[in-house]
Write a structure and sequence with these properties.
The complex is a heterodimer of chains A (278) and B (315). Chain A is an all-alpha fold. Chain A has one domain (73-273): Orthogonal Bundle (MetI-like fold), CATH 1.10.3720.10. Chain A has helices at 2-7, 12-19, 22-43, 76-111, 115-129, 132-142, 147-174, 177-184, 189-225, 237-244, 252-273. In chain A, 42% of the residues are buried. The relative contact order of chain B is 0.14. Chain B has 315 residues and is an all-alpha fold. The longest helix of chain B is centred in the C-terminal third of the chain and has 38 residues, at 224-261. Chain B has helices spanning 2-33, 38-47, 54-64, 70-82, 96-131, 136-149, 153-167, 180-209, 212-219, 224-261, 267-277, 280-308, 310-314. Chain B contains 13 helices and no strands. The chains are: A mainly alpha (278), B mainly alpha (315). Chain A binds chain B through residues 125-126, 129-135, 137-144, 214, 218, 221-222, 225-228, 238, 241, 245, 248-249, 255, 259, 262-263, 266-267, 270-271, 276-278, and chain B through 14-15, 18-19, 21-23, 26-27, 29-30, 33, 146-147, 149-152, 154-155, 158, 162, 166, 196, 199, 203, 246, 248-249, 252-253, 256-257, 260-261, 271-272, 275-276, 278, 283, 287, 290-291, 294-295.
């Protein structure tokens, strides 16, 4: 792709358009749109997501509250934006940590087999023994209602997949003729990683990261929905659905908002990942 | 064959041990992390806040071994677990094993119905789209699968309740007891499973239908149906069954959330309630059963793939 960009003047956006097929581009656009919504709404001013107004509960969308109000008269525009921000922020944070840790440990374990490799493998087996949500749920039980426990639990589940992928790819590449030739020529580790490992790892790690973000968002909302995750009055998508479901018949548009936000977010990440899941 | 199965069982046994250790250790941490004086808190949970006195707290302390050093208590905790002593629920006072034996049947019937629904809905759709990849049925089923995969099971559940209970009034929204209560929760779980398995079946079918042996069997004069039955089904069943193992994660996670939504009295519902009530022995018991169930089902999937595919027995 580098040769392509060198041939002629090309704006960065056009280069990106060349690189990504239409469905992945659509996913990226969805996510950028959601990010603009989540971080943009508070910049425009507007209501406090926690300010109650019991005289105006379950109002239909109107001039004062563009997306209506919930059962406590809180602005749904502000709350949905806050919830989107929370989910995306948590997903980015935990995916970034999981990818960093998985990449470093995976390359280290695949580079040279030994007791360190076996130890990390055993640790990965421990995490994978249980379904991920169960592990996050038990960690959430130890410190209920905490953002950081959720972050820790989700990262703990996500790094394992990155680690296993990176480790097996690294193992294969380290035995390949081109890497051995580079090593014989005396190139350093950083060069080996940048020239040989990273180009092979990047697309697969990126796909895993996008799926990981979808997993993170689904886990947070699932726990919120069964009232084990974050606590009220936090604006969180799953929690909002639990709160608004009893008012479905009076205010169907209110329940539709967190559902739509969650759907678009997960769809965005799945489209961005580009491949069908393994 | 025998050796392949033995080594497989050995691996899964190790996994089962890991599940027990991880669950045991996490629940032990949980007992230590309860704020305040643990014995008073547990006594309050058990007897109600008015009935708590120093005597009750001391009894709780003695029963749960709260006066030991942390390490000794941890070893004791794991020893109890290893001897299948799961203790009593702090809320109901019944033994955990007794509670679990009530709930397990409900969870199993829900999970089994969901898997059957997923196969009934997903397989024919997947096979039909795999036989003609790229045609409109393939595209529609891809879009459906993508949409369903972007919705967690509880959102599918909410949509089903809104449609079938609140709008059409065909089926009850929650509860259990009659067959009509089973429809919505198992459909909510089954749709998500069907979304993925239809795509797996489609890819497997497309691979098989594009293969040389498939073309040859058509060439020698077998009808489309005969070719599918003789040369197609067994070959494509291997990836489909193997993928069921991956989907088990979705099934177990879905059981926890869906049971809570539909007030279905199974293990997942009990786990959520135990976490809310901080009923540590019940958390341990339910998480253990879900984790071990995950291992057991995985083992069954592994054995099924060995039986279906003789080539794997040699490896």
């Amino acid at each position: 792709m580098k040769t392509l960009t060198r041939q002629g003047p090309m704006t960065p956006l056009l280069a990106l358009r060349r690189r990504l097929p239409a469905s992945r581009m659509l996913g990226l656009c969805l996510l950028v749109g959601l990010m603009l919504f989540g971080w943009g709404v508070p910049l425009l001013g507007g209501a406090d997501p926690y300010a109650q107004d019991l005289m105006h509960t379950l109002e239909a969308p109107g001039a004062l509250h563009p997306l209506g109000t919930d059962h406590l008269g809180r602005s749904l525009l502000a709350r949905t934006a806050e919830a989107v921000r929370l989910s995306l922020g948590l997903a980015f944070l935990s995916v970034a940590s999981a990818v960093t840790i998985g990449l470093v440990l995976g390359v280290a374990a695949g580079w040279r087999r030994g007791w360190g490799d076996r130890l990390l493998g055993a640790l990965a087996d421990c995490v994978l023994a249980l379904p991920g949500l169960l592990l996050v749920l038990m960690l959430a039980a130890i410190a209920p209602g905490s953002f950081w426990t959720l972050y820790l639990g989700i990262s703990l589940v996500l790094w394992v997949e990155v680690f296993r992928l990176v480790r097996s790819v690294t193992q294969g590449l380290m035995a390949s003729p081109q890497v051995q030739a580079s090593r014989l020529l005396g190139f350093g580790r950083v060069y080996l990683f940048r020239r040989h490992l990273w180009p092979a790892l990047r697309p697969q790690v990126m796909t895993l990261a996008a799926f990981g973000a979808a997993t993170a968002i689904l886990a947070v909302s699932s726990l919120g929905f069964v009232s084990i995750g974050l606590r009220p009055p936090t604006a969180e998508l799953g929690l909002m659905m639990t709160e608004l479901f009893p008012y479905y018949q009076e205010a169907p548009w209110a329940l539709a908002q967190p559902v739509l936000a969650l759907f678009l977010m997960v769809l965005g990440f799945i489209l961005l990942a580009g491949e069908e899941p393994k | 064959m025998g050796r392949a199965i033995l080594s497989l069982l050995g691996q899964r046994l190790v996994q089962a041990g890991l599940v027990a250790w991880v669950v045991g250790s996490l629940t032990y941490l949980l007992t230590r992390a309860l704020p305040g004086d643990m014995s008073f808190r547990i006594a309050a949970g058990r007897y109600g806040y008015e009935q708590v006195n120093a005597e009750a707290a001391a009894a709780v302390q003695q029963e749960l071994g709260l006066d030991q050093s942390p390490l000794a208590a941890y070893l004791q905790w794991l020893m109890d677990l290893a001897s299948f002593d799961l203790g009593r629920s702090l809320v109901s006072g019944e033994t955990v094993v007794q509670e679990l034996s009530h709930q397990l049947g409900h969870s199993l019937s829900l999970a089994l119905t969901a898997v059957v629904m997923a196969l009934v809905l997903g397989l024919p759709l997947g096979l039909a789209s795999g036989l003609r990849p790229g045609r409109w049925l393939d595209r529609v089923s891809l879009a459906l699968a993508l949409g369903l995969r972007s919705l967690p099971p509880f959102v599918v559940g909410i949509a089903l309740v809104v449609l079938f209970s609140l709008t059409l009034h065909w089926l009850p929204a929650a509860g259990h007891g009659s067959l009509s209560h089973l429809w919505l929760p198992s459909l909510a779980l089954g749709l998500g499973l069907a979304a993925v398995s239809s795509r797996v079946a489609r890819n497997a079918m497309a691979d098989v239908a594009g293969s040389d042996y498939y073309a040859f069997s058509r060439l020698k004069g077998l009808t489309g149906w005969q070719t599918l039955r003789r040369h197609g089904l067994r070959n494509l069943s291997v990836p489909v069954v193997a993928f069921l193992g991956v989907q088990l994660v979705y099934l177990i996670e879905g059981v926890v959330v869906i049971e809570s939504l539909f007030a279905w009295p199974g293990i997942g519902h009990a786990l959520v309630h135990a976490v809310v009530a901080r009923d540590v022995p019940m958390i341990q018991g339910t998480a253990l059963v879900l984790g071990l169930g995950f291992v057991l089902l995985n083992t069954l999937v592994d054995i099924a793939t060995l039986l279906l595919d003789p080539r794997r027995r040699l490896a």
